[in-house]
Design goal:
about 375 residues, alpha/beta, Rossmann fold, 2 domains, eight-stranded mixed β-sheet, six-stranded parallel β-sheet, 14 strands, about 40% helix, globular, Glycosyltransferase_grp1, DUF1972, Glyco_trans_1
Amino acid sequence: MAAPEKKLKVAIMGAKGYPYVYGGYDTMIKELGERLVQKGVHVRVYNHRALFKERPRFVNGIECIYTPAIESKSLTQLTHTFFSMLHACFSDVDVIFVVNSGNGPFGVISRIFRKPTAINVDGLEWLRPKWKGFGAKYFFWASKMATKFYDQLINDSEEMRRVYLELFQKDSQVIAYGANPREHVGPEPLEKWNLESRSYFLIVGRLVPDNNADLIIEGFLKSNSERKLVVVGDVPFADEWANRLKNIQDPRLLFTGYVTDPEELASLYSHCFAYFHGHEYGGTNPAMLKAMGYGCAILALNTPFNQEMLQNGKHGWYFEKKAQSVKDVVEKAESAPEKMDDLQKTARSGLTQKYNWDYVTEQYLEVLFRLKKKA
């Protein structure tokens, strides 16, 4: 009788960890990791030790390893992955899955140890305003290294695949980021901010220049709207640019800071008049998927990535990177509430199969098994 096939053992690293859900990569690891466990895969996630006061070895069937890092704004994430990669290479994992193109150079370690690897390189990090000078050069170089050292490159949008082909002459597999659509979210949590359903426009995202909250705020305040503009998000460090925005005095402007309660966030999305998406440099954006899943009318910055997600205007309107364009789209939306209603009703239908987490998991599973067989 043939021996039973050994369980696939996968190491995942490059984000903050599990079940820490703060950003897009953390969410992906949670959604993907839990589903892989259900499919009989041994999943090991490398957690950033400093973020976890309690450190159980297994959580929901996922093995958690708590690795250290050099704690500084620019080194934390990279050093955490470096230590995690060393640990994984000396272990019995079959495949290593890394997120974030900044971790591109560490593929040389797995190459030396002959461990099969995949990397999700989402985002044009080198173009983000926060990485000026050396930071931008590093991310461009690191992304190039990812194309050389990892066995499988993964992007979450066709547009990002095109960018990598053009810049680095390297093809990648497109596996989209998943969404969790949800209907019938109550308005009760809005009372915390004295808001009523459909009485406000919404922005959700980190207060960093490449999300263009400053442009949206400037354009909105120039408009004749009597609604509020609610800005959800912040930055986890003292920042002059973010503070300048938060100090703008106008009764129509409401900064909530971080909203960590999922029901409060769901209610803010579900009951906005329209959701503003100003993200400029990324592939499939988690905040946009949430907006679609909660049935928002979406007003998005006109970029190739946002065009792809909204199917070239089928599921949202666009504005250009000018305050006047924001003002115009606000006033156009206010003058056509029935059009906003239509966008809200059809938003979830934009979440085609490729954005379904179960389908996303099946695609990753195929990649992981293929890499294991190559080893």
